[in-house]
């Protein structure tokens, strides 16, 4: 069957706001860590302000392990999730049913892609206004506080329960020689979508909602998959792999390699979540925080780098179908006053792109913006 290559849908737009360079004649720096690490100091664009510089020796965050293998533990799992999500929104899932060989293949191919010469990776260069493609430290969009990382992102759609969006992306963008990449990541995204729907059932139970409510809301999700590569850095105390942010999406399912780097800001202190090859790290995003009417929290987090080892991770950002109205179910609104106005995911995404740089106040700022501009939206 012939593959028809199409332009990206609005759901593929960036999860991070753009920065204008109209008045900046300096060409963006090229992020090539093998060359940058030969310099005596990293370029100023990668140096973060003192108040945001990383803390390496920090305590470990106590997050619950949610075992998905036993139906008998459903009530206990929902209790543990509720406890974590009302405080910081992070938990680990184990016995999740995702094939170890699939996870291994996905990590192996991620390494193969990022090991390619820069010119080869730039064949998938991300275009402005899209979330699919290769991004080299986002140097085309920001000029300060650049992250020490490179990423490859692509869209996954579960709308037709058989869509081959990932396979088509790799074939159209990188050619038929990347067919194996498309096959593996298509299967991986399908596994993440299925896993996210299971987690949605537990989130519903945790909130006192019918377990099928959120599962149905995200059944036809239009999500984003991102591969992250954080190369070694000769001055890791000056920069960050990813700056402090809350995910604007609904749910993030992350798998880390063996290198530490994920940090979460809880009780006015940064805390780490060490890698666990048997577990996925799950965290609540701003959109689900709105769906829960603020009961479950979207928490500030970041990634740090080190001098010795590259770090890689795979993040699946669950997002609702474009036309779904984000509104808490009646079971929640009957108990708590309404905190956020109705919105759709593309509206929120546009706000984070054009009006506000994502932080821990994004959702409240977006709500105020929606109310102030309700006649224009």
From TrEMBL:
Lineage: Eukaryota, Viridiplantae, Streptophyta, Embryophyta, Tracheophyta
Cross-referenced InterPro entries: DIOX_N, IPNS-like_FE2OG_OXY, IPNS-like_sf, Iron_ascorbate_oxido_reductase, Oxoglu/Fe-dep_dioxygenase_dom
Name of a matching Pfam family: DIOX_N
Record's keyword annotation contains Iron: yes
Keyword field: Iron, Metal-binding, Oxidoreductase
Gene3D superfamilies reported in the protein's UniProt record: B-lactam Antibiotic, Isopenicillin N Synthase, Chain
Region ranges (Disordered): 1-26
Name the UniProt record assigns to this protein: Fe2OG dioxygenase domain-containing protein
Family indicated by similarity: Belongs to the iron/ascorbate-dependent oxidoreductase family.
Domain of life where this protein originates: Eukaryota
Domain Fe2OG dioxygenase: from-to ranges: 220-320
Biased composition (Basic and acidic residues): 11-21
